[in-house]
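Entry 14. Ran structure prediction on the chain below.
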Amino acid sequence: MAAYLPVLILLIVAGVIAASIIFIIGNIGPKKPNKMKDTFFECGVPPIGDAKKRFSVRFYLVAISFLLFDVEVVMLFPWALVYRDFLVFGPMILNAMLVFLGILTVAFVYEWRRGGLDWE
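Output, structure tokens:
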């Protein structure tokens, strides 16, 4: 347990700093609410309509799918860069990556067939 003591101290110090910053901002910062400050603001363009527009669940499913497949494909770049350095384990790593790509392809085709990528 003595090896984890520095990590515990770091977490406590980080928590104290975060809590003190939140406390200071909440209690010492200026509070002069008015109608103009309470309006939504987007890049200097005056707000038009209701900013609390509800999005379809489909939008979030497509976004999560995009992130999932995008992150998985990004995982291929480090592997591709160091593949030549693996002389002994190269074929085994290649087989593992082909299995990974196969599973990823099956998942992508399944989601595509189920209509998970359609926005309508």
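Residues 90-114 form the longest helix (25 residues). Will compare against last week's run tomorrow.
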